[in-house]
Amino acid sequence: MTAVNPAGYAEQLQAKVDRLRGLLAPFDAPAPQVFESPREHYRLRAEFRLWREGGQRHYAMFAPGDNRTPILIDQFPVASQRINALMPLLKAAWHADENLGHKLFQVEFLTTLAGDALITLCYHRPLDAQWEAAAQALATRLGVFVIGRSRGQRVVLGQDFVTEQMTVAGRTFSYRQPEGAFTQPNGTVCGHMLNWAHEALGEREDDLLELYCGNGNFTLPLATRVRKVLATEISKTSVAAALHNLADNGVDNVTLVRLSAEELTQALNGVREFRRLQGVDLTSYQFGTVFVDPPRAGMDPDTCELARRFDNILYVSCNPETLATNLEQLNSSHRIERCALFDQFPYTHHMEAGVLLVRR
Fold this sequence. Notes:
By secondary structure, this protein is α/β, with parallel strands linked by helices. The protein is built from ten helices and 17 strands. An eight-stranded mixed β-sheet has the order 1-16-17-15-14-11-12-13, sandwiched between helices. Strands 4-3-2-5-6-7-8 form a seven-stranded mixed β-sheet, covered by helices on one side. β12 (229-232), α7 and β13 (254-257) form a beta-alpha-beta unit. The longest helix is centred in the N-terminal third of the chain and has 16 residues, at 9-24. The model has no long low-confidence stretch (mean pLDDT 94). InterPro entries: MeTrfase_TrmA_AS, MeTrfase_TrmA_CS, SAM-dependent_MTases_sf, TrmA_MeTrfase, U5_MeTrfase_fam. It catalyses: uridine(54) in tRNA + S-adenosyl-L-methionine = 5-methyluridine(54) in tRNA + S-adenosyl-L-homocysteine + H(+); uridine(341) in tmRNA + S-adenosyl-L-methionine = 5-methyluridine(341) in tmRNA + S-adenosyl-L-homocysteine + H(+).
């Protein structure tokens, strides 16, 4: 559980800046732009186990490595104001109605800066018509969407996604964010990341290759800066959300294919052919930049070699240690022109970084 200490925020942020500068020092990186987080109520997602004590169920979290000693909580200052407002109302509801409370063991909240909220209720029992009626009444009363989960069951009341809005360079984009799919947890810092990447890419007359595009978080604003985009993502849920987001925002210069970064590397190298690339003329693209936002493990060596083909590499990393490892491979052909630190996770050791690399 994260210990929130607004008075110590500046000190912990400076420690992250120092750590990032140390990681990037071997590559002659310039000083990073630093994008702070709100001190409280910055996290748009939260997940709680329930713990029975004193005849009642309470929200609980656990220290890493200890799932036997619950930390009972009523409010969670890390989470959004909307989550904190919903927590006592939901707790009162499951205590007042056995249809909602019986064998409920986990609660998940997903909210947006735009005001949407979705609550997932997880049970150790089948969900019946009585549960559905009680949950529908709860959803109406709280102004939220509700999903019920139990083994072999997923009951959606309303819809299974929330809608976020992000403004980049004066244009507002709308994002469908499905339950269970990855989204950036710190909405304010996500906005900083999008605007930084949009500015770093600049206005271009060539094309962009994007790997690990997710639900199109970066794709939408970056597509406005280039002639066209080829984007890849392996998750079916994220691909579906990205296609919806492209259509909803009228972005029509993006081709999205469901391939992993490794598979696309094989396709571009002529190692394998993929039916999912049928109808996509790879030779029609004039790629000037590759944008990557990989998982914590970073890019594999083959994908790094693919990135080295491009004049510009725009790299957003959720793990600067693996970013530094990748930079060891990229450094001989590219130099860091600009970099940034995004404090997605205050009061923890985690940090996100961005670098723009240009060919030497």
